[in-house]
Design brief:
alpha/beta, ten-stranded mixed beta sheet, about 35% helix, globular, binds 2-keto-3-deoxygluconate, binds magnesium ion
Length: about 400
């Protein structure tokens, strides 16, 4: 028994906003969890402070599964990003505490290492093909074995995944949401040209990925997947919005390009049909948005039955706490596929000191007991929260589109 003595939320903005939960036990052990929902941070703060934390005090921190079920089934109104993110933060913090008490890095408690490290992919983005490929070459020189390519589209001022800071992906901006203009037709013409040039310049030994960010209809996605087939992508991500999971059937019927989806999913139910019908190859659910390590393991075990592998979301809005959770989880599951890895700012890395290390294209969570990531609360306080939103997207005629 290790009673929960207190829990508090730490909201900070070291380069971007993060919501962090810290749970302390009566033995003086603490654990941290990430609760960041990009652009909706304060909703999770209120959910945790008003509705979750009061129910945690006095509970046994070791009862991770029971506490998970208590928060999930006990809410009655289940699922959704805010609820599942709050549960995730509690879950991560409790796993951190359990592993610290055991004196082991978390992956050892989850079954031990299945491999030397987690294969990761970097982000190369540029205004045009030349710039994108020269960014990719920089990552390859750093040792990366997989790179996601996003490129400006001729005729569009801004394009998904192409940010002004080439080294860092950060679409959220302070103030009210920025408005971008989108043309699917222009995009569909440009992407195959990017990948044709990429194979010519970068060769065939590097894994290449691309994110469509839910912007296509099923028939458009099928055409893109087919057009990209000759370039042997590692995956095509979020080809269509996945509210209609059966939409993926159409893409599958037309192409052998591997498909990935799931960064916005919150529960195993969001993945069920896609996995059962083998409509995807990679499931991208992340610890923070899909109920923590406890539910991620269930999703991975279910996916393993159908030859679907993991590919956790790891953009900059997922804090180093989520990154650490993903790395312990990834190392310990047999059907790990790949992990997204985007560099956080220096300020973020200072607020969240961590033990994970990059070497030769792989990330390892390190050997520190627990998650191996901490929060410097004093430093965090010096970066106060700033209201920030993701942009929105409209078609050239003004119609609201998916972002
Ligand atoms: O908050 C939104 C970002 O996390 C998202 O745009 C990142 O699509 C994304 C990715 O694949 O990393
Ligand atoms: Mg994505």
């Amino acid at each position: 028994m290790s009673k929960i003595l207190s829990a508090r939320v730490i909201l900070s903005s070291p380069g971007r906003n993060f919501t962090t939960l810290k749970i302390e036990t009566e033995d003086g052990i603490y654990g941290v969890g990430d609760a960041t929902v990009n652009g909706r941070e304060l909703a999770v703060v209120a959910y945790l402070e008003e509705h979750v934390i009061p129910c945690l005090i006095g509970r046994d921190a070791h009862q991770i599964e029971d506490i998970w079920q208590y928060l999930y089934k006990g809410a009655y109104w289940r699922r959704g990003p805010i609820t599942m993110c709050a549960i995730a933060a509690v879950d991560m913090a409790l796993w951190d505490i359990k592993a610290k008490i055991a004196g082991l890095p978390l992956y050892q408690l989850l079954g031990g290492a299945c491999r030397r490290g987690n294969l990761v992919y970097a982000h190369a983005n540029g205004e045009d093909i030349e710039e994108t490929l020269s960014e990719a070459e920089k990552y390859i020189a750093m040792g990366y074995r997989a790179v996601r390519l996003q490129c400006g589209v001729p005729g569009l001022k801004s394009t998904y995944g192409v940010t002004s800071d080439k080294a860092r992906y950060e679409p959220a901006g302070t103030g009210l949401p920025a408005e971008n203009i989108w043309s699917t037709e222009k995009y569909l013409r440009a992407v195959p040209q990017l990948f044709a040039a990429a194979r010519e310049t970068l060769g065939w030994d590097i894994h290449l990925l691309h994110d469509t960010h839910h912007r296509l209809t099923p028939i458009q996605a099928a055409r893109l997947a087919k057009d990209l087939e000759p370039y042997r992508l590692f995956w095509l991500e979020d080809a269509v919005p996945a509210e209609n999971q059966e939409n993926f059937r159409l893409i599958r019927q037309h192409s052998t390009t591997p498909l990935a989806v799931g960064e916005v999913f919150n529960t195993i139910w969001d993945c069920k049909q896609l996995i059962e019908e083998q409509l995807i190859d990679y499931i991208r659910t992340a610890a923070v948005h899909a109920g923590g390590i406890t539910q991620l393991r269930k999703i991975a075990n279910f996916a393993a039955l159908y030859n679907v592998r993991t590919g956790c979301h790891g953009a900059t809005d997922l804090s180093p706490v989520t990154m650490a959770a993903a790395l312990h989880f990834g190392l310990s599951v047999s059907n790990f596929g790949i992990q997204e890895f985007m560099h956080h700012t220096e300020e973020t890395n200072r607020v969240f000191p961590h033990s994970y290390v990059f070497e030769d294209g792989y990330l390892h969570p390190g050997e520190k007991p627990g998650l191996g990531v901490d929060i410097d609360e004093d430093l965090a306080r010096s970066f106060p929260y700033q209201r920030a939103y993701l942009p929105i997207n409209r078609l050239e005629d003004g119609t609201m589109h998916d972002w």
